[in-house]
Each structure stands twice: as C-alpha cells, then as structure tokens.
Write a structure and sequence with these properties.
With 327 residues, the chain is of the alpha/beta class. It is built from ten helices and 15 strands. Strands 3, 4, 5, 6, 7, 14 and 15 form a seven-stranded mixed beta sheet that branches. Strands 10-9-8-11-12-13 form a six-stranded parallel beta sheet. It is globular and about 60 Å long.
C-alpha cells in the first residue's frame, strides 16, 4: 500500500512516498481504509522533533517519539474511512462501517490502510458528514473538550477564546457555547464572521484591539494557540478565574504554583487524556447540528509537503485536510 513516511527528523521535505506492507488486523482490531486525514500541529511538531520550541522541548519530544529516529514512520493522527476487515472477537464494528477517530501518538493515518483496536478512539462516523469533514474533527475538538473540562465551564460564565479561528479555537468556541458560557472570540479581521457563525457572543479583532487593555474581565481565558501568557492575561481574569493553556512548559510550573497562591489559576495538564466517550459526545453534537468542522484547505496526498509548509505558517483557519483516498 502507499504511505507517506519519514526516516529522520527535519523540515517538511523529509516526507516522502513509499510502498509499505498492508497491515492485517489482529484479535480485537479493525482494518480501516483511510479516506481522509489532516495535517495538524502534532504531526508537524513531531516530525521536526519540536526543535522550533527549543532544545529542552526537543529532547523531551525525542524521548517520546524516538531518540535517534521516529519510532512511527507513518505520520497522521486523525482519520476518517471505512472498515475493510475485522479481527476475531470484534463485535462493535462490521465491514463497510464508516468510522472516524484519533490515533494520537500511534500515528499511522497518512497511509491507505491502518489497524486500530476497537477500544481505541474510533467511532461510527456522524451520518451528516463527509469523510473530509469527519477527519477534521477529533484532534481539535477533543483537545478543546479536555481543556474546558478542567475548569468546570457552565452556564453564565464568561470565557475568552484567544486564537478562535484555529483548529482548537473553532472547537472551543462551539463547545463553550454548548456548555452555556458567554463566549468572546479573539481572531484576525478575516475570520470575524466565521467565529460569529460558530456561536461567539462577542468578537475582538486582535489586529485592532488588545483584549488585555480594554478593562474587561473573564472567568476563563482559553489560549487555544499557545501565544499568550498568564502574566499578560492575569489582569483580565476575574478573582477565581482560570488561564487555560494548551502549550508552554512554563505552565507546568505555574499550574501547581497558582493552585497554592493567589486567586487566579493556571490550568495546564499533560499528557492530555482523550477518552472515547468524548468522541461519542462529538458525534452526537454533530448529528444534532451543534458542532461543525471548519476546513481551510484540502490537499491531495502527493502534496503533503506543501500542506505541512502551510500549517507551519500558523495562519491556517480551522483544519487542513489530507485527501488520502478520496471516495
């Protein structure tokens, strides 16, 4: 089968096509014919061994993904496709089922086929989505769900989502709205109407206004792109409020420190935990019309290098889809 692989860490150019053996499902596994995947920041950071985030982070990244070379040669962590075969004892899925899900650090979705345990974060695909739309859901939405779940978001609370037009941000706006919060979304001018359509009650154009200087305060500030800091946001938090981080190892120190001292907290826990129940919740929200995928660009499989370069500009809106085997 065809797959995109890489054998050493580096820029997008290390990615290349290769014929690799087609996997065979073992007991408790399903074989999935992948129709669509995405190119996300996890794929890009892992491919470059997180060197863009500094030497210490790069060393830690290599301890996880492979010290000298990548442990998993085939990237790709999000997918949508069809079940082609099932292993012994499998009862939850049947041949022909349309599925979507997240492989996480096991990767493998940039290939025509992959095997996944039935207990993994794989579920029946929403009936009202295409393969490309479904592939663009799991990572950003499950990350946002995990993050919001740490701060007890509930009706009446005010949340500001910084980076509201990215993969995690577009998910965060929709999910915060689902939980009944008053949502203020921060993004660039070109995406203001988009985030309004996703359910934001208020929008701020960061090219024209600095939300940390407008005098308003929030129960939660959700930094969905890792470009802010607790120090800069602290005065914009209410007493008892949370700065909700998605990146930055400094927040590993700030989280326990602020839990002991002061009335304003940093919430940041790694590794994140994405239970399968969250994927099933997202499926229900999608089918009930409460959540939709936001797709910026679609690239055929043979343009994966160009797709990765675009993601690394950090200017994408929502998600970038990789067409593995279009139906």
């Amino acid at each position: 089968m065809k797959a995109i692989v890489y054998d050493h860490y580096g820029p997008p150019d290390v990615l290349h096509f290769e014929d690799v053996p087609k996997p065979v499902p073992r007991e408790g596994e399903v074989l999935i014919r992948v129709r669509a995947s995405t190119v996300n920041r996890l794929d890009c950071h892992t491919r470059e061994a997180n060197i863009s985030n500094g030497r210490l982070v790069s060393i830690l990244s290599r301890l996880v993904s492979g010290v000298r070379a990548p442990r998993h040669r085939v990237p790709g962590s999000e997918l949508a496709g069809e079940v082609e075969a099932v292993g012994a004892t499998v009862r939850d899925f049947a041949v022909g089922d349309k599925v979507f899900g997240l492989t996480g650090l096991r990767f493998g979705a940039w290939a025509e086929y992959l095997c996944a345990p039935v207990a993994a974060r794989i579920a029946q695909m929403p009936t009202n989505m295409t393969f490309e739309e479904a592939a663009a859901v799991p990572d950003g939405a499950m990350n946002a769900l995990w993050s919001l779940g740490q701060v007890g978001l509930r009706p009446g609370r005010g949340i500001l989502v910084y980076g509201a037009s990215g993969s995690i941000g577009t998910a965060g706006v929709q999910l915060a709205r689902h939980f009944g919060a008053h949502v203020t979304a921060v993004c660039a001018t070109k995406n203001l109407e988009l985030v309004k359509s996703l359910g934001a009650d208020e929008v701020i154009d960061y090219t024209k206004e600095d939300f940390t200087k407008n005098g308003k305060t929030y129960d939660v500030i959700f930094d969905a792109v890792g470009k802010h800091s607790f120090k800069r946001c602290k005065d914009s938090l209410k007493s008892g409020g949370y700065y909700l981080a998605t990146d930055g190892f400094r927040n590993l120190v700030l989280a326990p420190w602020t839990a002991l001292f002061g009335t304003k907290k940093v919430s940041f826990t790694i590794p994140p935990r994405y239970p399968k129940q969250d994927l099933l919740l997202l499926k229900d929200l999608i089918e009930n019309g409460e959540y939709r995928a936001v797709i910026d660009r679609r690239y055929p499989m043979d343009q994966v290098v160009e797709a990765a370069r675009y993601v690394e500009t950090q200017q994408k809106t929502g998600n970038v889809v990789l067409q593995v085997a279009p139906n």
